[in-house]
Every structure is written in C-alpha cells, then in structure tokens.
C-alpha cells in the first residue's frame, strides 16, 4: 500500500505531458529487484492495480521507447465504486499541481455531444445510459473546460442537480421540445467537488504541518477552522463529498494527518487497503 501511494504522489507531481520515466518510478517504488525486467514487470502490475481502482495512468512514450507514465487528473472522477450521488463528480483534487491541459483541438468532442446540445437548446428531457444506469435528466447547460465536456442537469431519480461527464453518456434520446423543467434551483453551482452535497455533512479534523497549511487551504478551497495542536495546526473541515475528500487525502500524502472522526478514518483505511489488494 505504501508503495502504491508513493507511485501516485510521484505521478501527481510529474510533468503532465512528458510523464514520469519508468526507471524513476522503479526507484521510487523501491522494488529492490536485481533484474530490471522483473522490476519493470512489477511496476506494470502496480500500474494495472491502480488502473483497476479507477486511476487513469497512461504510457505516453512512443512505441519502442522506454515507458513514461502520466496520471490524468481530469478523469479522477471516473473511479470504480463511486456511489450513485458521486457518479457525476468531476474530481479536482490535483487542481493545485502544475497541470498542462491538452489544447482544445487535441480533444475530440464526445459522441453524444450533438444530442446533448439539442437537449439543452430545445429544453428536452434527456434519457440516457450513464455509468451503466438508465437516467432521465432535465438539462440546464453545457460546460467545456480544457479537455472535457460537462452537462449540468437535474436527475429525475433523486431530484439532485449534478454535473455529468458527457463522454460517459450512451444511447441518448430526447423527449419532446419544452419537456424539460425550467427555472431549476441550483444552489450548489460550483466546479469544486468539495462543495457538492453528495453525503450528509461531517466535521473532519486534520493535522497539518505549518509549511503545508497554504497548500491544504488552496486545494480544498473551503472555509476551515483551525487551532494549534501537538501534531501541527489542527484544521476542521465540513465534508459533504466524502469520496472527493478521500481522493484529496491520497494526493496530500504525509503532509496531512487524518485525526477523526473514527468512522472517516476507518473508511479511508478501507479504501487504501482495497487498492493495495488490487
């Protein structure tokens, strides 16, 4: 588990275009194998394990060249095992890291974009398969930040306004023009997933070393309370999107200590162990 976390931190801090060289990851992973080929096989196995857990890690090296791996932060939302309320969450846990998004011309529009655009323009209820589940939504607007397309819509199933990743939409079909609701209240209109009310609010306590306090506040982008403690500054955060918070904790590594409550600590350890088990 510790090795997987070291690999993730190295990839998160790596160049978003050139990636991190395989031999560097082998050193970071401390595989301690005399045979370089065996060490490479072990690294590839761990990369697959992380991929199975939902992290999109790509070898960007040309064919026949030594491997170089890139972690794509834009797709951290597509984790395996997301709860229904989290399926549309766009993970921004690595927002503070130096990321160079692809040029718009390099990103092909999603297959469903034309149908989704018609749904927004004509105010049609959109029926679709999303993450393998049939959904009916009331479209509100499109959003196109670098490298991705998003739909803001009201989900009929639970009555929650969400962001949907359009390239995850399959088999879209439209009801009659004007069938979608208008004037939908959208109080959680934010692209910061830590602000989305996916789960019941939970007060979480963290310990943060002084030199990392600014980074923690910047990446969470939330109002936090704090007080001095034995481990470092004690930070209190109201968490309403537990999965986004857990992913953020992974990116913070040893810079942050999760103090409580105990059920959140247990949930975080269970998630790490699930990744380690592959």
Automatic annotation (TrEMBL):
Query: PROSITE patterns from the xrefs?
Result: WYL
Q: Does the keyword S-adenosyl-L-methionine apply?
A: no
User: WCX domain: which residues?
Assistant: 200-276
Give the InterPro entries listed for this entry. CBASS_pafABC_assoc_protein, WCX_dom, WYL_dom
Entry keyword annotation includes DNA-binding: yes
- Top-level division of the source organism's lineage: Bacteria
Q: Where is the WYL domain?
A: 113-171
GO MF annotations in UniProt: DNA binding
A Pfam family reported for this protein in Swiss-Prot or TrEMBL: WCX
Sorted alphabetically, which keywords does the UniProt record give?
DNA-binding
The UniProt entry, under PANTHER family, shows: PROTEIN PAFB, PTHR34580
State what protein this is by name: Putative DNA-binding transcriptional regulator YafY
Q: Which organism is it from?
A: Phycicoccus duodecadis
UniProt lineage: Bacteria, Bacillati, Actinomycetota, Actinomycetes, Micrococcales
């Amino acid at each position: 588990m510790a090795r997987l976390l070291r690999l993730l931190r190295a990839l998160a801090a790596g160049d978003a275009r050139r990636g991190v060289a395989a031999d560097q990851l082998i050193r970071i992973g401390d595989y301690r194998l005399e045979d370089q080929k065996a060490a490479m096989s072990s690294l590839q196995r761990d990369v697959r394990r992380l991929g199975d857990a939902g992290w999109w890690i790509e070898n960007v090296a040309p064919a026949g060249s030594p491997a170089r791996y890139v972690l794509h932060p834009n797709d951290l939302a597509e984790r395996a095992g997301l709860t229904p309320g989290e399926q549309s969450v766009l993970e921004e846990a690595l927002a503070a890291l130096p990321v160079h998004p692809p040029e718009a011309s390099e990103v092909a529009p999603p297959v469903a974009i034309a149908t989704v655009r018609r749904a927004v323009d004509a105010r049609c209820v959109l029926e679709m398969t999303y993450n393998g589940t049939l959904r009916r939504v009331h479209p509100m607007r499109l959003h196109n930040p670098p490298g991705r397309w998003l739909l803001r819509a009201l989900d009929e199933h639970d009555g929650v306004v969400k962001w949907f990743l359009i390239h995850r939409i399959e088999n879209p079909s439209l009801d009659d023009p004007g069938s979608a609701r208008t004037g939908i209240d959208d109080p959680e209109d934010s692209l910061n997933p830590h602000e989305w009310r996916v789960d019941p609010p939970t007060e979480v306590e963290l310990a943060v070393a002084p030199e990392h306090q600014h980074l923690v506040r910047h990446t969470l982008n939330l109002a936090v309370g704090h007080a001095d403690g034995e481990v470092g500054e004690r930070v209190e955060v109201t968490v309403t999107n537990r999965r986004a918070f857990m992913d953020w904790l992974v990116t913070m590594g040893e810079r942050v200590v999760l103090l409580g409550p105990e059920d959140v600590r247990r949930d975080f350890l269970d998630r790490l162990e699930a990744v380690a088990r592959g």
